Amino acid sequence: MTITIEYYLILSAFMFLVGVAGVLTRRNAIVVFMSIELMLNSANLTLIAFASFMGSSVGQLFVFFVMTVAAAEAAVGLAIIIAIFRNKLTVNIDEINILKW
């Protein structure tokens, strides 16, 4: 018994929907940040599934680029969240209004 591509795509869609739900419903910046990372990982799973299905390694190459961008985004994003926490003493998105006068 082999696992077909549909199972990978269903899992990827579920992961993406959980990430979207986390971004839309949560007010904590750390949880929103983790939800964005979950959406990136679901896109990586889709790329790997299609690369495996097509018998090509191009999708795996794209995954390495996405992982590189995600690592840079994680470092910069966490640094921004820490800087905002030091200034505002909260990571609640509703209470952070640094763009208002």
List keywords for this structure.
101 residues; elongated
Describe this structure in words.
The chain is mostly helical and 101 residues long. Helix content is 77%, strand content 0%. The chain has 3 helices and no strands. The protein has helices at 5-25, 29-54, 58-88. Helix 1 (5-25) packs antiparallel against helix 2 and helix 2 runs antiparallel to helix 3 (58-88). The longest helix has 31 residues, at 58-88.
Largest sheet: none
**H/E element sequence:** HHH
Q: Compute the CA-based radius of gyration.
A: 17 Å
**Quick one: how many beta strands?**
0
**Total of DSSP H or I helical runs spanning 4+ residues:** 3
Mean pLDDT: 91
Distance between the termini: 62 Å
Briefly note the structural class of the backbone: mainly alpha
Helix percentage? over 70%
The gross shape turns out to be: elongated
Low-confidence stretches: none
**Approximate strand percentage:** under 5%
Secondary structure blueprint with pairings:
Layout: H1 5-25, H2 29-54, H3 58-88
Helix pairs in contact: 1-2, 2-3
